[in-house]
Each structure stands twice: as structure tokens, then as C-alpha cells.
Amino acid sequence: MAVPAAHPGRHDGTVPPTPPGEHPSHPDLLAICDTGLEAATSLLQSAARTLAASSLDEDQAFAYDLAHASASVAAAEALVSRAHEEPAVTPFALVAAAEAAQGLLSATLGREEAWGLEVAEQGGPALHDIRMLLRAGRSPARIAELAGGPPGRGLGEELDLVADTFRRFAEERIRPVADQIHRTNADIPEEILAGLAELGAFGLSIPEAYGGFAAQDEDTVLAMLVATEELSRVSLGAGGSLVTRPEIVARALLAGGTEAQRRAWLPRLASGDVMAAVAVTEPDFGSDVASLGTLATREAGGWSLSGTKTWCTFAARANVLALLARTDPDRSLAHRGLSLFLVEKPVTPSAGFLLHQSAEPGGPPGGGRLEGRPIDTLGYRGMHSYELAFDRWWVPGEAVVGGEAGAGRGFYLQMAGFENGRLQTAARAVGVMQAAFEAAQSYAAGRRVFGRPLADYQLTRVKLGRMAATVAATRALAYRAAALLASGGGTTEASMVKAYGCKAAEWVAREAMQLHGGMGYAEEFPVSRYFVDARVLSIFEGADETLALKVIARQLVAAAGR
Prior knowledge:
The protein is an alpha+beta fold. The protein has four domains: 26-138, Butyryl-CoA Dehydrogenase, subunit A, domain 3 (Up-down Bundle); 157-263, Acyl-CoA dehydrogenase/oxidase, N-terminal domain (Butyryl-Coa Dehydrogenase, subunit A, domain 1), CATH 1.10.540; 277-411, Butyryl-CoA Dehydrogenase, subunit A, domain 2; 419-547, Butyryl-CoA Dehydrogenase, subunit A, domain 3. The protein contains 16 helices and ten strands. Strand 9 and strand 10 (452-453) form a beta hairpin. The N and C termini lie close together (12 Å).
């Protein structure tokens, strides 16, 4: 894991003492953060080397804890790095760093040897620096000072304008119907889809040459994150997730589609004329994408698809499905036998659908069948998720992304789409967290308990302060990952912010619900919706356990080996 670069005024080694009765200055607090996080990073690197000498499969519990501890430290590092440029962010960075250090030390207790930490070293300089960070950042009084809310994004006027535009749309067009959509499991109104298309939301990840607005630079990725945050702040299912599907399909086309396919699909995705859904997961294979069994068989100038996909969100409303299928029946080829298809379909009722293909003279064979069964869910409503059963469903040869050259490359093309999807999921988590924080803050200000406003109590302010620091840290790591992805890197950071942010969103929403007391359990208060929506974030776009073990831990071990 990278340690933040040196900054002007940064201290190295020991932290200068603070005179009695005085609070440390911001530079001193940042020095405490720097030395504490450097010590934490050193401990994590030692643990990764220990894991490298063992086995990821045999030490899954350790690898999982290592992945999440590393993600927490990375989020704190990103916020501390921002604080070096913006001193007002320092109090949030200090609390976030202390939270990460606390989690790391908790993970090591009783397992010092596994973490590469000899018991005799428990009083050594590394742990001394971490404990200094804990003493500075775990003070209830200091945390309570953050109860006013997380700092602004600090991204500049142009991206502030993007945020304002999407916030206004979300407040005016989505919020009035968000609770009704959730409580009745209703469809997203077409007016919302049309309005987002008019704003250019579906073209945020599509290059200008293909009718979108993406310039393939850092600001382009950040604009997508900001828009997603603001839409998710009002509704995850009826707002924030609408931008994800066209982006996943667009990334796959840009990574390996033919020029004809890009010209045919990208402009229509960007304009919203075509809505997309992603059909990857199967009943027996979720994150284990390489083992998928849906079979594509060559037939009459095209392919015949047979198999079952599940958790295909937005499948009824979608005009096209990005479907991953096995074009080589040799299962030993694993991911190398998969190809990605763009499967056209009509818009169908959300209650479920059954489609049939009829034979035409001189045309493809008939008899194909596609059935969609809706899956009722606790939250994340509006887009609806489906189980799709394909029975000899025929598609033309040009439906394979990349054409003949794309056969067998579907896994890589799909992963190209999912990489940015993880980052966008982190932005969705930030939006849900922000909404939950604002709901808790507002309720605490108006609710009186034992003759005083709930917001006057120390515990309430500490809870709000921790929530605010968590939102700020997730944002900081998401924006750092965006910058790295725009320059061709950032794979590890995108995975980390997805892992960290999604679990954090669930915790923040839970605390917000708790501050509402019994009313938090009532559907009439939106915080109950935020809680059930937050729960799905660690499950989709790569289950938390698979992401931690198969992606983050592997990357940490590989880095330790280098």
C-alpha cells in the first residue's frame, strides 16, 4: 500500500509535545496522523508478507481481515492527504485515521504472530505511534466537534455545478416518489428516465465521439461519481443505480467491441434511447464468474442461448442485455471459454414476462423462449431484479462483443466494465451514507429526550461525528481511485473503496436508524429505506468476501512479494 507523499511542514519521527492545557495545532495533528498511519502501513505490509508465505485459501479469515484493515487505512490515508492541502479537513482526517488504527489493532489482538507482530514488540516504536494516533483521535470531545457534518467535496466550481444540477433534479423529480416506489415496489416513472437522459446522465461514461460526454480524464470520472452520489442520496434504486448499467456495457464495448458495435450501441446508450441490463450471475455461480454454465451454441448464422441467469436488475425495462455465456463447452477452459453477448429484447412488464421467437422463411430458427421472473427484495426497489431462463434463444453472430475476435474474451470484457462499477458502487454508498447522516442529524435536532434535544447529548454528537468522518474518508478514497483509474491504474484502490465504503454505509445507516429510536423502524421515515438499501451494497457488484479474498488480499500479497 502506498504511503502518502511527503508534504511541506510534515514532521518525521517523533511528534512534538503539546504544552499543557493546549490542543495540538493542525500541523501537529497531521504529523500524528502521518506517523501513526506509516506505522499501520508497516504492520499491514508485514502481515501481507506473512500471508504470502502461507496460503490464501487456508487462511481466509486472516486474509479477509487484512483486506478490510488495509482498505480502512487506505481511506484514512486519502483523507489525511487531502488535509495536508486543506487544513479544515484535519479534524475529520484525524478521527478517520484513529478509527482505522483502532480496527487494525483489534484485528491483531490474540493473533500477533499471524500479523507478523512478535509479542515482544508490543511496546515498540510502531505500536507507540499507533497508540499516539488513538489518543489524539479517539477523544469523544474531538469526535463530537464533527457532528455538523462532513466537509465539502473540495473538487472545484465545475464539479460543484455538476453536483448542484443532479441534486436539484433528485430533489425535485425523484424525492417526491422515492418512498412510494420503495413501499409499493413500483416501477421507476418514465419521466425520471427521460429527465436523466436530458441531463446527459447516461452518457457520463461514453466518449464524445460516440455521443456521450466523457473526455477520459480525471474530471470525467469524478463527474460520474458526483452525479451518482447525489442521485443515490435521494434513492438508491430509483436514482443512483440507473447510471451503472450503461456504464458497464459501455466499458465493455470500449474495451473490446468492434467499431461497428460501438457506433451502433454507444450513442443510443448515451441518449437513453436504449436501456441496458447485465446478465452475469447464475443460481449456482455468483462471484465465481469463471464457472458460469449458460451455454451458447452455434446455430444458423448465429448463436442459441440456453441457461438461467439471476439477479439481473432492470431486465424488464431494458432493451438490451449484456449476457456472459460459455461459447466453448469445454468447462476446463473456465473463464477462457466465455464470450459476452448483447441480447436485444423488447421492453416488457415488470410483473414478469414470457417471450417467444417464431421462425421466418429464410431466417433464423424459431422456438426460442425467454422467461423473466421478478425477485422480490427487502430494498433496492424500483429497477426490479429478475431470474431469466433462456431456452434456445437465438441471437445473430454480430451479437458477440468483438465479433469473432471477441469469442473467448467475454470474461475480460465483463471485468473491464465491473472495474469502474466497483468505484461507482462506492459513490452509491457515499450517497446513501450522506442521506442517512442528514436524516439522523435532522431528527436529533428536533427530537427531545428527558427534556433536552437529542442533539445536545454527547453520545449523539459522537455518533454523528464518527458518521461524518466515515463519509469523508470514503469520499476521499473514491476520488483518489478515480484519479488513478483515469491515468491507467487504481485497480486496488477501486476494490478497496468498494469494500470499505459498502460496509461503512451499512454501519452509518444502522446508526442513523438507531438515533431515530422506534421511528427508525417505521417505513414512514426514509431512514428505514436507507438501511435496507445499504445492506445490498456489500452483496452486488462483487460480493464482499470474494472481493476481499480474490482481489484485495491477492493484490496485497503480490505487492508484498515485490
